[in-house]
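Hi, here's the filled form for the chain we discussed.

Project: internal
Contact: R.S.
Residues: 68
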Amino acid sequence: MKEERRSFVKKTLGASALVAAGSAIPVMASSANSSVSSSNGVVVGKSPKKEILYKETAQWEAFYKASY
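And the returned structure, exactly as it came back:
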């Protein structure tokens, strides 16, 4: 009885590993085709807008003065 369970678990794990590997191969192949310029994994967009990370406001000034 235990041997039957063990063989079933072995077969199930083997099949699931094959399915997982089979589904991972197309994903890896599609990501390999994308061109990666020296951006260290950061997505580089083509937006004409300038990204603003900080806007000088009274709240920020109060925060920075309190943090010193």
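Let me know if anything looks off before we file it.
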